[in-house]
Amino acid sequence: MTPEKSRLLRRVVLILLLLAFVLLFIFDVFDFLHDRERVENFFNDSGIFGPVLYVLAFVAAQPLSLPGAALIIPATFVWSWWEVLVYSMLGGIIASSIGFIVARWLAQDWVRKRLPQRFIGWEKRFVKNALSPQ
Predict the structure, then answer these.
(1) Do the beta carbons of residue 71 and residue 61 sit within 8 Å?
(2) In 3D, which of 7, 16, 15, 18 has the Cα closest to residue 107?
(3) 14-65 pLDDT, tens per residue?
(4) pLDDT tens-digit series, residues 91-104
(5) Residue 29 in domain
(6) How far apart are CA 101 and CA 107, in angstroms?
(7) Three-class SS of residue 102?
(8) How many domains does the chain have?
(9) What is the pLDDT of residue 38?
(10) Of 45, 39, 43, 65, which Cα lies nearest the Cα of 55?
(11) Residue 83 counted as domain residue
(12) How far apart are the C-alpha atoms of 62 and 67, rounded to whole Å?
């Protein structure tokens, strides 16, 4: 990715995050989250969309460095512990996959600039002999 595209991508992501934050305020999402009963009723009444929204929230929380416990503990008020485990694991796997894709293909130059030189040598060897025993 060229430096111009990389800068453009960073600006687009920043603008989208700011827009999302403003929309959360406009639609009073933060006030909604303070009422435990409303949140429970919302997710229980949402049917299949409740778990889908939870997984999407879990995916969105990772790039924001929000601790998983901030979503897992409240989710136990809505679903059983094993359902929360499945939904959280699914969200974590999806978020990690997206993070890998972004780091590997979209932000490769940005990440490479921040890596110590010794890791770059390892990366070159890995690219050349990915799974061979040499």
Answers:
(1) yes
(2) 7
(3) 898 889 888 878 887 767 767 788 888 888 898 999 999 999 999 988 887 8
(4) 999 999 998 888 77
(5) no
(6) 9
(7) helix
(8) 1
(9) 85
(10) 43
(11) yes
(12) 8
Give the burial class of 56: count Cβ atoms within 10 A of its Cβ; 0-12 exposed, 13-18 middle, 19 or more buried.
middle
pLDDT tens-digit readout, 99-123: 888 877 777 777 778 878 888 777 7
* SS3 call for 67: coil
Domain assignment present for 16: no
**Domain that residue 58 falls in:** 35-128
Q: What letter would DSSP give residue 66?
A: -
- The three-point CA angle 62-63-64 to 5° equals 90
pTM exceeds 0.70 for this model: no
CB count in 10 Å sphere of residue 95: 19
- Determine the pLDDT at residue 100: 86
With beta carbons less than 8 A apart as the criterion, state whether 38 and 32 touch: yes
Residue 111 identity: V
Q: Is 54 exposed, middle or buried (0-12, 13-18, 19+ CB in 10 A)?
A: buried
Helix residue ranges, H only, 1-134 = 3-26, 29-33, 36-45, 49-61, 69-75, 81-101, 108-114, 117-128
- Would 23 be classed as within a structural domain? no
Query: What pLDDT was estimated at residue 1?
Result: 63
